[in-house]
Amino acid sequence: MSISGESTARERLVVVGGDAAGMSAASRARRLKGPDELEIIAFERGHFSSYSACGIPYWVGGDVTDRDALIARSPEEHRERGIDLRMRTEVTDLDVRGGRVRARDLGTGAESWTPYDKLVIATGARPVRPPLPGIDAPGVHGVQTLDDGLALLDTLGRTPGGRAVVIGAGYIGVEMAEALINRGYGVTVLNRGPEPMSTLDPDMGRLVHVAMEGLGITMVNGAEVTKILTGGDGRVRAVATQDEEYAADVVVLGIGVRPETSLAEAAGLPLGEHGGLLTDLAMRVRGHDNVWAGGDCVEVLDLVSGRERHIPLGTHANKHGQVIGSNVGGDYATFPGVVGTAVSKVCDLEIARTGLREKDAHRAGLRFESVTVEATGRAGYYPGADPMTVKMLAERRTGRLLGVQIVGREDAAKRVDIAAVALTACMTVERMTALDLGYAPPFSPVWDPILVAARKAVSAVRSGG
Amino acid sequence: MSISGESTARERLVVVGGDAAGMSAASRARRLKGPDELEIIAFERGHFSSYSACGIPYWVGGDVTDRDALIARSPEEHRERGIDLRMRTEVTDLDVRGGRVRARDLGTGAESWTPYDKLVIATGARPVRPPLPGIDAPGVHGVQTLDDGLALLDTLGRTPGGRAVVIGAGYIGVEMAEALINRGYGVTVLNRGPEPMSTLDPDMGRLVHVAMEGLGITMVNGAEVTKILTGGDGRVRAVATQDEEYAADVVVLGIGVRPETSLAEAAGLPLGEHGGLLTDLAMRVRGHDNVWAGGDCVEVLDLVSGRERHIPLGTHANKHGQVIGSNVGGDYATFPGVVGTAVSKVCDLEIARTGLREKDAHRAGLRFESVTVEATGRAGYYPGADPMTVKMLAERRTGRLLGVQIVGREDAAKRVDIAAVALTACMTVERMTALDLGYAPPFSPVWDPILVAARKAVSAVRSGG
C-alpha cells in the first residue's frame, strides 16, 4: 500500500492477449492493486475482448441469438475498471531481457515499444489449418473467433438448408455438427481417426458415432481430406477425401488448435513438447520471475499421468487468469494442474471424460483394469430413466482410479465431476463404492452409475493379476 | 468351498426384514455361496419385498403409473434365486444367545422358532405417528409402505381436486406436497419448525418456502398440530393447530421415521442415541460376531462430525446389504460412513445438502466460516441458465470443507456430489477452487457454482479469525 502523499514507484503490468486468461489476470490484479500502485496495459489484436469461444457453436446453431451475449466484458467495461485495453493492437515482439514489448496499431500501422515491470502472456491458440488446396475458398470457415462466427452465419444465410461438411470429429466438430443440424443443414462429418471423439477410447467413441448417425448426421471415419473443391463462383462446392467427394455449400474446420507461442518462442521462453509455454505452480514462466503465462498458450500438468498436456478450455484459462492476477497483485495462488475433464453434447447425447484413456494409461506405463457398465441416471421406474454407458479404468493391484468416460442422454455428462474429484483425491475404486452421493428417484437410482462402475472395477481389480 | 461328495455342515443365514438392506444382503451372500453351503431364510411381515419406499411420492403423484415398477424384485424372483423368503411372517422374538428367532405366520397365526448360524437384522424404520386425537381417522395417511400408497390413492380417488394437508416439511413432506399438487389438490403444509427442510439451515429453507408458495402451496411455519377433526362420516375434515383450522379431504403424515429396533432392544443389542443399532465397519452388530444389521434400523458414522446419525435412505440400505452379504458370504467389505448427502425436489425446485449445517458444526465444536453465492448452472448466455443458491461452510484457519447446501432449478441438486466427494477426501476449499470440473456452455459456466462458492469461502477463511 502506498501512503498518501508519498511518492511511490508505480509498477506497470503489460498483458498480451485480451481474452479469458489475460483479462481475468488483469481484472484480478486490478482488484488487488489500485491504479496508483499498478498501471495495467493490455493489447488485443482482435475486435473483441473476454468472449466465450466455447459458445460459438451455440450461437451458430441458434440456441444463443445474440452475439454480444458471448462477450463477458467489453473493452469499455475493462477501461472503466482502470485497465488500459488497446484493441486491434498486435504485439509483434517480446523483449524479455529488455523488459518491453513492441506493438502495432492495426488501424494506423504505427509501432512502438512499451516497457513493463511484469508481463502476462495470454496469446491463446490458433486453429490448425492444413495446407489443403482450396482451404482459403469462400465458404470454408474456422470457428475460433466471433468474426469467424459472423462469417459462417453469413455463408449459412446464402444457402439455407444446404449441405455442410465438418472436417474433424473432436469437441468442435461434434458441436458444430449439432449447430448445423439445428440450422437445417444436411451434415457430413469427416474424421481421420477410427471413431469420433478421439478424447475417448474408440469403444466409447463408437457409441457417439452410432448416436450421431441416429440424429441424421453422416459420419465418415478414416477420412483423409485431400482437397477442397470450388465451383465457378470460386466458392466451395465439395470436399474430397482419398476415397470420395462430398458436396458442400459450407465447410467447417474443427481440426483443433495449437498454442499460439511464436512470439514466446522467438523470445527464447521455454516451450513443452506440445508447443505450449511451461510455467510453475504459480503460472510463472519457468526461469522468468516477472513473466506469467496462462490460457490456451500454456501446457498444464496432468495430475494423473504426471505429464504435461495442452488443454485449450475456457475454464482453465479463467483459473489461470485468476491465479496470475492474484500473484501479480501480491497475493499468492497456485494452479496445481488438471485431471483432464471435458464434457460436450451432440443434440441430446451427452459425452464426458476425465483422467486417462487406455492409451494414456499404456503410455504412462500403468497396468490397469478397464470395465464398462450400462446404468440409468434416475431410478428405473422414474420417467426419463435413460441408460448411460460408463467406462472406468483402475490401476491393477492398488485399485487407484485412473479415468472415467461417459456417453448417454440427460444427466449423464456432469456425473463425470464425481470422478474428477475422486481422481484429484487419488481415491481407489473401492473407496468410491462407498461414496455418499445424492440419491432420490428423480436424480439417481440407489446405485448411481458411477457407483455401479466402481463396483465392477473393484471386482476386476480383485480378480486381476 | 465344499469338495463334491464330502459331507459339509451347511450354514443357515436368517434375515429379518425383506426390503432393501435385508434382501441385498441375502442376494449378495447367495452369489458368493450356493445353496449347498448356505441356506438362506428371510422373514418379511408385509406384502411386498425389495420395494422402493422413496418412489411412493412419485407413484402417488402420477409420475410413476405402475405400482409394480417400485418393486425391484418380487418374492418369487428371490425364491428362484434360492432364498427362502417367507412373506407375511413377522419375527416376534430374537434369541441371540440361543441363536434362533421366533416368527409368526400372519395368515395362520402359527408361531415357531428358527435357529440360525448367522443373523441379519434389517427391520427398517417406523413412521412417527404422534398421539393426536383423530390420527387414526380414515383419510389420514402415512406413506411408508406400498399398502400406505394404495390407501392414499383410494382416498384421493374419492375427493378429486380437494384439499390436502401435509403434516411435516422434510423430504417426505415436500415430495408429497408435489405429488398432491400434481393430483390437482390444494395443498397446505404444516411445519413445526421455522422454515421447511430442517435438514438445511433456515436461510436456505427460506428459499424452499418462497419457491413452494410460488408453486401455489400454502406453507405454514411454526405450526403445532393439536388434533385432527372428523366429519359426520368419521372421515377427516380438518387439521387444527394452536392457531387455526385447515380444512382437509386428505391428510398426509410426513413427520419422519425412527429406527424399528424394538426386537433388537428386547434382545439386548446395542442401540445408539437415535435408537438405531450400532455396528462396526463391516456392519456387524457391536459385540456380536454372527449378527449383522443394516438399513433404516442402524445408525451410521458421520465422517465429517465423527458422530453417529440415523439416516433412513435407500441408497445406504443397499450399500449396507451389499457389505453385509459380502461379509456373510466370506468376502470382506466395509461401510466407512456417510457425509450426509441428500437431494430432493418440489416440482422444478431442486434441493440438496451434504456435510454439516451451521448447527451441526456448532454442536461438533467447530469454528467455521459460512458463505452463500448465487450462480448459474450453465453459461449465462445459454438457454435455461437459471441461478442457484449455494451455501458453503468451511472450517476456520484450516479451510477444510464442512458442508454444502444448494437450492435451485434444473441441474442444481446433483452438483452436491462434487462436495460429497470433496468432504470424503477431507479437501480444503482452497483445493476445491482448482477442481477440474466439466465445463461446456450447456453444462456449466466457466466457474461452476461450486467453484464460485469455494472461491468465496477461501476469501472468508483467509480474512477470518
From TrEMBL, chains A, B:
Q: Name one GO molecular function term.
A: oxidoreductase activity
Q: Which Pfam families match?
A: Pyr_redox_2, Pyr_redox_dim
The prosthetic group or cofactor this protein requires is: FAD
Record bears the keyword Oxidoreductase: yes
What sequence ranges are listed for the domain FAD/NAD(P)-binding? 12-310
- Which segments constitute the Pyridine nucleotide-disulphide oxidoreductase dimerisation domain? 344-446
- Record family assignment: Belongs to the class-III pyridine nucleotide-disulfide oxidoreductase family.
Is Oxidoreductase one of the keywords? yes
Q: Which PANTHER family does the protein's record reference?
A: NAD(P)H SULFUR OXIDOREDUCTASE (COA-DEPENDENT) (PTHR43429:SF1), PYRIDINE NUCLEOTIDE-DISULFIDE OXIDOREDUCTASE DOMAIN-CONTAINING (PTHR43429)
- This protein is called Flavoprotein oxidoreductase
Tell me which UniProt keywords the record has, alphabetically.
Answer: FAD, Flavoprotein, Oxidoreductase, Redox-active center
